[in-house]
Q: What sequence folds into this?
């Protein structure tokens, strides 16, 4: 893994349980589509409307291939539709990180 996609979600704080259902579904879907699932992280203390996801890839090209597979995966499509229908996610930001090595 040389690249990590960090997704920062602003969620509806009254729909945290539904967001957890959404996040839990990705735990199986993402690896099946080629991503290395590092984890989803939900609000615990402090802010009640910010969640995070970390997904690893060998390269940005691997990420692009994963995104193409994800758009064609029936479970992925259904999970995206669930989030949209339930209006769980108010804002989503992505950035790509690399690990600092000695």
A:
């Amino acid at each position: 893994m040389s690249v990590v996609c960090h997704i920062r979600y602003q969620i509806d704080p009254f729909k945290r349980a539904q967001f957890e259902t959404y996040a839990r579904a990705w735990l199986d879907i993402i690896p099946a589509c080629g991503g290395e699932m590092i984890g989803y992280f939900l609000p615990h203390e402090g802010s009640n409307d910010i969640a995070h996801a970390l997904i690893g890839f060998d390269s940005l090209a691997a990420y692009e291939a994963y995104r193409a597979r994800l758009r064609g995966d029936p479970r992925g499509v259904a999970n995206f539709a669930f989030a949209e229908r339930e209006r769980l996610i108010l804002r989503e930001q992505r950035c790509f990180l690399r690990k600092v090595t000695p």
Observations:
- The chain has one domain: 3-95.
